[in-house]
Amino acid sequence: VDYLVDTSAWLSHVVADVEDGEVETVYVRVGDQLLGLRQGGAQDRFYHLDALGSVRALTNQAGASAAALTYTAFGRRLPAGETGQVYGFAGEPWSPVGLAYHRARWLDPVLGRFGSMDPFGGSGGEPVSLHKYLFANGSPVNRSDPSGMFSVAEMSLVGSIRSVASSIQIDVGISILASEPLDPGGGISNALMLASLASVGFAIVHNWRALITAFEADW
Predict the structure, then answer these.
(1) Would you place residue 4 in the very low, low, confident or very high pLDDT band (cuts 50, 70, 90)?
(2) Which of 44, 48, 45 lies closest to 56 in space, CA to CA?
(3) Strands 33-39 and 100-102
(4) Does 17 map to a domain?
(5) Is residue 192 part of a domain?
């Protein structure tokens, strides 16, 4: 089986399984969230996920249940039955030997540990992150680790700061174009613009010590 992979976002995702030159399965997503799949001549099926992104059920086009899934704390499927598709705990794919693919590493859901050392150095301010094999800082109910390097909670903070900084840059740029430089009577004064930028700058500096390792791993 060959895989068609979308690498345009920070997380790569399989969008189709191809065998002998024929597309066998197509996966539909919005961002990182699974919506459904189409397999050959079979009916389309739709994913139902919990807050962590784990697949809890699949339904067919009529809305009838096609599969229901439950897991242990670290993702071992109960019971270990066949659902005709590979996605499960935390929305990640599974191998035939029972390991979950988290991009940089493989997770053993029985042990709750990765099979190889973490390439991310961890944070001194959060000692549990220094563990080289632990999944999601030992909190699989509240965190996930789709990259195999650091938890979603850490990435969410990095992403939020990037988003806020980008939004203010755009707003300030538009305001500068719409008003005369150093004109206090413009739509937004230079003082307000600088205050907005300073506010974001202070927030980034305040979080920098915690984020620096995450940025290094991300880039």
Answers:
(1) very high
(2) 48
(3) unpaired
(4) yes
(5) yes
Q: For 171, phi and psi rounded to 5 degrees? A: -60, -45
Residues 178 and 210 in one domain: yes
Question: Strand pairing of 13-19 and 22-30?
Answer: antiparallel
Predicted confidence at residue 217, as pLDDT, reads: 47
CB within 8 Å of 26: residues ≥ 6 apart: 15, 16, 37, 38
Q: What is the C-alpha radius of gyration for the chain, rounded to an integer number of angstroms? A: 22
- pLDDT digits over 171-208, tens only? 544 454 455 454 444 444 455 444 444 444 444 444 44
Same domain, 18 and 107: yes
Q: What is the pLDDT of residues 101-134, one digit of tens each?
A: 999 999 999 999 999 999 988 888 889 999 999 9
CB of 104 closer than 8 Å to CB of 149: yes
DSSP-assigned beta bridge partners for residue 47:
58
Q: Which two tokens stand for residue 128?
A: 């549990």
What is the extent of the structural domain holding 70? Answer: 2-138
Q: What is the pLDDT of residue 82?
A: 77
Burial of 19 (0-12, 13-18, 19+ CB in 10 A): exposed
Domain check: are 129 and 62 in the same one? yes
